[in-house]
Amino acid sequence: MGTSLLQEFLSSRLLDIGAEDSRLEKLENTCGELAKTYAINPQSALAPLLAAWDPSAGEDPSLLQIGSVLQGHWPTYRGAFTGEPLTLYRAVVLESVMRAMELQGVLAVAVNLVAANILPHLKVGQESRILEILVGRADAITAERLKQVWPDQNSATNLAPMAVPPMNSLKKIDENAWFAQVAAAAGPSTNRNDVALSNANPHWPNQPQNWSYEFAERMAPILADVHDRTAASTLKIAGAAFKSLTDAVTAKLNEFLVAEQARSNQRDATSRLLWWRQSLYSETAEKPYRKLPAALVAWHMALDMSDLLPEVYPPAVESLLFESVGAATGAQGDTELTLGELLQVNGATSQLAQLGWLTEQRTTASRTLLVQALANSYAAGSQEAAKLGVDAELKMLPGDWGIWLLREIKALEALATPDAVEQPAEADA
Question: What is the C-alpha separation between 293 and 383, in angstroms, rounded?
């Protein structure tokens, strides 16, 4: 296991659980249970994470729920603290997410994207190093996934040489394996007292005419048996070697095809992005971006671009989005928008409210992203503020808001399509 964020909290004296080692073990078990939950259902980790990395989150409901899980492993934990141990809850969530990312890659992608938006605007104080460890690991996992879906087009497909499986040699046959049969074909008896002959040749070779008839009848089956056994052994070894070679070739071809398919997909995505940038037409708004106000340009460009991208994408894509927003908004693109202004969009005009995907993002979670806040606003018929922990008066250029929204959209899409997680085998009762 890598760095423990629980240990980081303890070492930094941001958390005090007393001197009993058993308490740390109970916390570790709690994190293990939550990590499995987050890995199987990564969407369930979003709200607790948004609260956990904000030291000013207070008694957020998503944090208080951690108490019920903790109590299952440490029934008397409340007696060790005065009031709600919020720092403890936050440490448990962060450690659980850290572990879950190793099992569920899409959670790491979401952490990578959402952290890039929110953390620069939070006052995390002494916890900055802890969050750097969490985000650093998320970045590393995301980078590995990026290599798979967005390969370098300027270099050849780099595959490891195929390992040719070795061929087993034939086993040496015991020289006494057919002694009794050959001796029986040769004559009535043998000089080996420990060998009993069955159906022995009744004649000796000095009786050539009679002996040869009897010898041939007995020797022919022996030679056939030697041949059959040798052939069977050879075929068995050759068949196993051929299957191993076939499997190795098939695996290497599949590896090559996957790599080339990723290259092809990346070229297709690049072509679609270039066409989208040149046309400046919004599929979701069903009109050119130039006919939309700046806030809606940010929303629709983020939504449209997300449909053109795989799960992860290189940083240059965000630069393309920023420049595209600037090209579509003209002078409006140089005026900063507040968080509130970004959410004050008319659904009937923008057609955002009719988007099925956006409707699906409605949530009752205590912490919400901007996308979720807008979905909730449309559902309630009144504006809802995003619950991110950042300043409500936060201002950014429309291009920067477009990048923010794209990250959120891709994070939510990733969480909704988790990887398969291998379940540990249950111990026998």
Answer: 18
Q: What spatial distance separates the first Cα and last Cα of the chain, rounded to whole Å?
A: 28
Give DSSP secondary structure letters for 358-399.
HHTT----SS--HHHHHHHHHHHTS-----SSS-TT-EE-HH
Nearest CA-CA partner of 361 in 379, 346, 347: 379
Q: Where are the alpha helices (DSSP H) in 280-355?
A: 294-306, 316-329, 339-343, 347-350
Measured CA to CA, the distance from residue 311 to residue 323 in angstroms comes to 21
pLDDT of residue 265: 72
Query: How confident is the model over 356-380, as pLDDT tens digits?
Result: 999 999 999 989 999 999 999 888 8
Reported as a single tens digit per residue, the pLDDT across 59-92 is 999 999 999 999 999 999 998 898 899 999 999 9
Neighbours of 190 (CB within 10 A): 17
Long-range contacts of 229-232 (CB under 8 A, 24+ apart): 230/170
Spatial separation of the C-alpha atoms in residues 76 and 149, rounded to whole Å = 48
Burial 337-354 (b: 16+ CB within 10 A, else e): bbbebbbebeeeebbbbe
How far apart (Å, rounded) are the C-alpha atoms in residues 415 and 177?
A: 66
Question: Are the beta carbons of 139 and 112 closer than 8 angstroms?
Answer: yes
Given a contact cutoff of 8 angstroms between Cβ atoms, the answer to whether 31 and 92 are in contact is yes
